[in-house]
Specification:
By secondary structure, the protein is an alpha/beta fold. The protein folds into 2 domains: about 210 residues, TIM Barrel (Alpha-Beta Barrel); about 90 residues, no CATH class. Helices cover about 45% and strands about 15% of the residues. It is built from 14 helices and 10 strands. Strands 1-2-3-4-5-6-7-8 form an 8-stranded parallel beta barrel, surrounded by 6 helices. Strands 9-10 form a two-stranded antiparallel ribbon. The structure holds flavin mononucleotide.
């Protein structure tokens, strides 16, 4: 299935394997490339010295071989509180990463540097105000992050956000993200005017994901009502499975924490601290045998029926999309 997006980034099927903190790994991205989609990962998943560069080099070489029908890209958190941002951006530029997704903050520098060698930059947006800012900076497209998405979900339904972005910015491709775990989901966002979908939660329950079995099982077992939002992890609302530990620590920052994250002098450092602690909590949850579990996932857990290989997940997406498009022409039977 070709769309403007799949042609733009040179892939067979218009799905982005979404970047997922602590979940995305090299194996998943390579499997994405082998199966005709674009695999992405947050650069923050590779924080050890030399790690990110060697992963980027391996992916660049794989792409150069020309055997895969997919592609790869990175996610950069462009917020001031990300201490790795500059270093990671320089490494990505050096390794000529072909595709970037930026989230939180101002992507100006990423757009300029990526465009200097022809790479594309899509920016996470949850509303028109932020979309206008990244549009003015010259982004190549939007990732419309809707309600119910895994991670930092937006407040708006995709059925509203996608067509609104299209009507404000008709020249920019829109990728829909949030709650898409089936071909019918993909077909529905194409109908709204999106040029593809970004899929995260479905790929947590993949054989290639390196997270522990308990996390994958929780994604398969959880229902949509088990997903709650918390500001405890990063200060920004984030979706997690409502585990006993999540219930115990609560979902909102307390008054002092909220004050420190808004105050001009403490804001940057306090946010860094909250994100560091949240990262440590998430990190220990993806390791085996930990009762303090904080598992990030979106509402599409409801639709996930088992742990599968990336190849099978993509194959399901393809056959279900065909089926959904046929079903659409026989809606009078419903
Ligand atoms: C476990 C997890 C970690 C995530 N980490 C990031 C991240 O580091 N950066 C980012 O831009 N988005 C992150 N996201 C959001 C995804 O990139 C994507 O927008 C989202 O998963 C799409 O919604 P879905 O999970 O319903 O498919 C994360 C999502 C999940 C589930």
């Amino acid at each position: 299935m070709k769309t403007a997006f799949s042609s733009l980034v040179g892939i067979d099927f218009p799905i982005i394997m979404a970047p997922m903190f602590l979940v995305s790994n090299q194996k998943m991205v390579e499997a994405a490339m082998d199966n005709g989609i674009i695999g992405t990962f947050p650069t923050l998943n590779f924080r050890e010295e030399g790690e990110l560069e060697s992963v980027l080099e391996a992916l660049k070489n794989k792409a150069k071989e020309g055997k895969s029908s997919g592609s790869y890209g990175v996610n950069l958190i462009v917020q001031k509180s990300n201490p790795y941002y500059k270093k990671h951006l320089d490494l990505c530029v050096k390794q000529e990463v072909p595709f970037y997704i930026t989230s939180l903050g101002n992507p100006k520098e990423v757009i300029e540097k990526a465009h200097s060698y022809g790479a594309k930059v899509f920016c996470d947006v949850t509303n028109i105000e932020h979309a206008q800012k990244v549009y003015d900076l010259g982004c190549d497209g939007f990732i419309a992050v809707g309600a119910g998405a895994g991670g930092h979900a937006g407040p708006n339904a995709l059925q509203v956000l996608v067509p609104t972005l299209k009507s404000h910015f008709p020249d920019k491709p829109v990728i829909a993200a949030g709650g898409i775990a089936s071909g019918a989901g993909l077909a529905s966002v194409l109908a709204l005017g999106a040029t593809g979908a970004s899929v995260g939660t479905r790929f947590i329950a993949s054989q290639e994901a390196g997270v522990n079995q308990a996390y994958k099982d929780a994604v398969v077992d959880a229902k949509m009502d088990d997903i709650v939002m918390t500001t405890k992890i990063s200060g920004t609302p984030c979706t997690i499975i409502n585990t006993p530990y999540a219930k115990k620590i609560g979902y909102r920052q307390n008054a002092v924490e909220r004050f420190l994250s808004k105050n001009k002098t403490t804001k940057k450092y306090f946010k860094m601290w909250v994100q560091y602690l949240g990262m440590k909590k998430l990190e220990s949850s993806v390791m085996p045998a930990n009762y303090k579990t904080l598992w990030c996932a979106g509402q599409s857990v409801e639709l996930i029926d088992g742990v599968k290989s990336v190849a099978d997940i993509v194959a399901d997406f393809k056959s279900e999309t065909d089926e959904a498009l046929v079903n659409l022409t026989s809606y009078s039977n419903r």
